[in-house]
Amino acid sequence: MKIIFLFFLTFAIFSCKTPTPPESTEEFIKGVYGNPGTLLEAGYWFDSLGMNAVFVRSGSLNREFYETSKKQGVKVFVEFPTLNGKEYLVDHPDAWPINEKGENAPPADWFMGICPTHPGFKEYRSNQLKEILNEYTVDGIFLDYVHWHAQFETPNPILPETCFCDRCTGAFAAVIDTIIPGNTIPLKAEWILKNADPEWRKWRVGVLNTWVEDMGAILKEYQPEAKLGVFHCAWYPADYDSALYRTMGLDPAALAERADVLSPMLFHSMKARPTTWVGEYVSWLGETLEVGKKGKPQIWPIVQSHNNPGIVSSEEFRMVMIEGSKAPASGIMMFSDQSLIEDPKKLEVMKELYSKRRPQ
After folding, report:
1. pTM of the full predicted structure?
2. Contact assessment for residue 251 and residue 209, using Cβ atoms and an 8 Å cutoff
3. What is the pLDDT of residues 79-96, one digit of tens each?
């Protein structure tokens, strides 16, 4: 209970209203996430749609797209699939996350995470990031999949306990300066969860914080002016038995100390939430992180237009765009570009809202 109390204390919502942040001299970011090149292929120009930024998956980034984006006057931010392990695990099964039973954790529906302490995987991702930064001058890198193996973009999250491989439990034992009893993974996992659960949760958060620090250090070494962003699960501290901290391994306050921009993934339909939840979460996050006082990090939410599950209407899309753009947000992006192509009404909504300084 102690760790839960400390976590809630850390994220307590202040009873007094935080000051309104001073008007930023930076342009309000208005972008599209995914593979925005589909808009170009359909004959649209980014600037004619009111966009001033694209958030492109690293796998969709190429020279032609980059040059066209720059010619059209938009900033290029690149998504980086930090702890998405699906492709790496094919040839490196020793990086598979292990559950408390000593078994390979099953894929979480469409997502497959990885053991974040695997040194070969960190080298692999570090080299990929360096390749991008050597090839392109970017406006920022946005770290994606910054969490332990789990899936949250659904009304019924998949939240396994990981990772109890010998590498992870050995590193944890060194941190707490204790020999963990047991000669099998299940026995060690049982001892940890019964006798050192608060320390275990804290250590797991620290592993992710180190990933953000290490990727951020590479970015700032190669391109000091580029922004470091983090896409993250948009849950409140108490949601799903405090799974944001306990299972996902995320501490938004710690991320805020390490990143320039936080992008909560406010996919209302995927999470079966009302459109008003989008604005409520942005307000809560700003107050919790005292953005009004500190001015950092910037908050650029990502909202849903994508028709899964169900259909997101053009009016729903309008509402989440407006809600997500409320202060203290200083930018917004929508997912996905394909949904705009499929529904011209949504494209018109985005164009109308992006023609304004701040969608409202």
Report:
1. 0.93
2. yes
3. 999 999 999 999 999 999
Q: Dig out the tokens for 184 from the structure.
A: 């099998």
The tokens for 239 are: 């949601």
Kindly report the number of other CB atoms within 10 A of residue 120's CB atom. 11
Residue 298 pairs in a beta bridge with 261
pLDDT higher than threshold 60 for residue 299: yes
Q: Please tell me whether the peptide bond between 16 and the residue prior to it is cis, using omega within 30 degrees of 0.
A: no
> What percentage of the chain has pLDDT greater than the value 70?
93
> Which of helix, strand or coil describes residue 161?
coil
* Chain centroid offset of residue 49 CA: 25
* Alpha helices per DSSP H over the chain: 2-10, 37-41, 63-71, 86-89, 119-135, 166-176, 185-195, 197-222, 239-246, 252-258, 276-288, 291-294, 314-324, 337-342, 344-354
Among 209, 224, 227, 359, residue whose Cα is nearest residue 296: 227
Q: Mind listing the pLDDT tens digit for each residue in 133-171?
A: 999 999 999 999 999 999 999 889 999 999 999 999 999
| DSSP letter (8 states) at residue 206 | H
Q: What is the DSSP string of 247-302?
A: TS---HHHHHHH-SEEEEEE-TTTTT--THHHHHHHHHHHHHTTHHHH--SEE--E
